[in-house]
Design brief:
Blueprint: H1 4-33, E1 43-49, H2 68-76, E2 78-80, E3 83-84, H3 90-99, H4 103-106, H5 123-128, E4 133-139, E5 166-170, E6 204-205, E7 208-209, H6 218-232, E8 238-243, H7 255-258, H8 266-292, E9 298-304, H9 310-314, H10 332-335, E10 336-337, E11 339-342, E12 351-353, E13 357-358, H11 362-369, H12 388-391, E14 401-408, E15 413-420, E16 423-427, E17 435-439, H13 455-479
Parallel strand pairs: 1-8, 1-9, 2-12, 3-13, 4-5, 4-8
Antiparallel strand pairs: 2-11, 3-10, 5-6, 6-7, 9-11, 14-15, 15-16, 16-17
Helix pairs in contact: 2-8, 6-8
Signal peptide: 1-31
Protein name: Ulvan-active sulfatase
Keywords: Hydrolase, Signal
């Protein structure tokens, strides 16, 4: 006879065992489906200011402008004392950051003259192959972000066409305070003071115009979108590209920031104030990384897109430091920009280098750090080099050439330059631009033109410049892409 009193507890034990087994199987399945963080996949944050001169930051010796957070970032990692933008103006440089290629190669030769081609391989596209989430925030300027706003000199090519999973972007410049409204006293391009700036809704978020949280400091408005992106992706690798508008014209600072510079005139109050406001948001970002405990697995890169704006530089408001030139010139002041890199535990703190580096180096550097170098298409020539050995002090020098340029043939502008070793050959960016030759090891401020006294060096560098430009022309005409 079956003892039913014994069956009940046995049945309960069997049920409990089966339940625990189900939970274990379910948990295992859930673990297999959830994204796992690769220990060799650091987060990457690319920060860029707009028209900030080499001398417009504390860590390069400016005692007037308050940039405590950028200074702390430079002190926490490596200061890049000879870091070059690929061009002396915004759009070409921005494209070089994303592709690792010279602007003359991918075809954006000046501002508002084209857009990023989908044939280019970008950093977010490479990182997507390793499971990264990518977000873009700020000034895009390598293509229009609104399909209905396409102008005569460019085309619709938003961040989502180039690997970004989400974006909050403008096509081009906005006021650095209240970005939807034309500021008082503004008498240049844009609109009349007090009227909507470029229609009143210059920002697009994932294809939709943005009207909320658009008042006050533009750098804060951008960071308000960056922080949630980082919080929501802290458990998986991410790329955040944050391209501020500060301190590009129209340069406006809020009253609280202008008060910090009350001993200066109005122009400096606005210029210095908007840089300090941007710096404050960079501090907010660094604090968030530490709050989340992810700063030691995050590589943060900072630079400007070119030298200081022409008018503000000539007035003595903006600074290229001791270097000659400004935005739109091929001199050091137009190309050298403030830059630093931070990755706690990987990049030694308190270090600096005067090795020449460039925005074209971002892609190969990030590809190496994130172990996606094998995903770079062999059909796409990469002009940059991997900076990780330099950033980690495994090497102290890197032999390489650097090529710079921008072109507006309609106005007779065809500026180019090449640095080979310590020698620099430049063609001035103006009609019938003169060739000039400098030995940067002896003359870093380009005061002594050696073109007339060193004809052999002039000839050799001119030939090399022509070879690089011819290679870029082939790329631009389609040699790197499949049809």
């Amino acid at each position: 006879m079956i003892n039913r009193k014994l069956i009940r507890p046995i049945h309960r034990l069997l049920s409990l065992g089966i339940g625990l087994l189900c939970l274990a199987v379910t948990g295992s399945a859930k673990a297999d489906t959830e994204p796992r963080r690769d220990a060799a996949a650091p987060n990457v944050i690319m920060l860029m200011s707009d028209d900030q001169g080499w001398g417009d930051v504390g860590f390069n010796g400016n005692d007037d402008i308050h940039t405590p957070n950028l200074d702390a970032m430079a002190a926490g990692g490596m200061r890049l004392d000879r870091f070059y933008a690929a061009a002396p103006l915004c759009s070409p440089t921005r494209g070089s950051c994303l592709t690792g290629r010279y602007p003359f190669r991918f075809g954006i030769l000046a501002a508002h003259t084209g857009g990023m081609r989908v044939g280019e391989t970008t950093i977010p596209e490479l990182l997507k192959k390793k499971g990264y989430r990518s977000g873009f925030f700020g000034k895009w300027h390598v293509g229009w972000v609104k399909p209905d706003d396409v102008g005569s000199r460019g085309f619709y090519s938003p961040p989502s066409h180039h690997g970004y999973d989400q974006y909050f972007a403008t096509t081009s410049a906005v006021p650095t305070w209240n970005p939807t409204v034309t500021p008082e006293g503004w008498d240049s391009w844009g609109n009349e003071p007090g009227k909507p700036w470029k229609g009143g809704m210059p920002y697009v978020q994932d294809g939709k115009d943005v009207s909320e949280n658009m008042a006050g400091d533009d750098s804060c408005i951008i960071m308000d979108r960056v922080i949630p992106f980082i919080e929501s992706n802290q458990d998986q690798p991410f790329l955040a590209t944050v391209w501020f508008h500060a301190p590009h014209e129209p340069v406006v600072a809020g009253e609280e920031y202008k008060k910090r510079y009350k001993k200066f005139g109005k122009a400096r109050q606005n210029y210095y104030g908007c840089i300090t406001a941007m710096d404050e948001q960079i501090g907010r970002l660094r604090a968030k990384l530490r709050e989340l405990g992810i700063e030691k697995r995050t590589l943060v890169l900072f630079c400007s897109d070119n030298g200081p704006a022409d008018s503000l530089s000539k007035k003595g408001v903006a600074s290229a430091g001791p270097f000659q030139g400004h935005k739109h010139t091929m001199y050091e002041g137009g190309l050298l920009v403030p830059a630093c890199a931070e990755w706690p535990g990987v990049i030694p703190a308190g270090t600096a280098t005067d090795v020449r580096c460039s925005t074209v180096d971002f892609l190969p550097t990030i590809a190496h750090a994130c172990q996606v170098e094998s995903a770079i298409k062999s059909s796409l020539p990469i002009d940059g080099v991997n900076l990780m050995p330099l950033l980690t002090e495994k090497v102290e020098s890197q032999e390489r050439e650097l090529f710079f340029g921008y072109r507006r043939l309609q106005g007779g502008i065809d500026g180019k330059a090449i640095i080979s070793g310590n020698w620099k050959l430049l063609q001035e960016a103006k009609k019938d631009g003169k060739l000039r030759l400098y030995d940067l090891s002896q003359d870093p401020y380009e005061e002594n033109d050696l073109a007339a006294t060193s004809p052999e060096r002039l000839s050799a560098l001119s030939q090399r410049l022509a070879e690089i430009e011819a290679s870029c022309q082939r790329s631009r005409d389609g040699a790197d892409y499949r049809y």
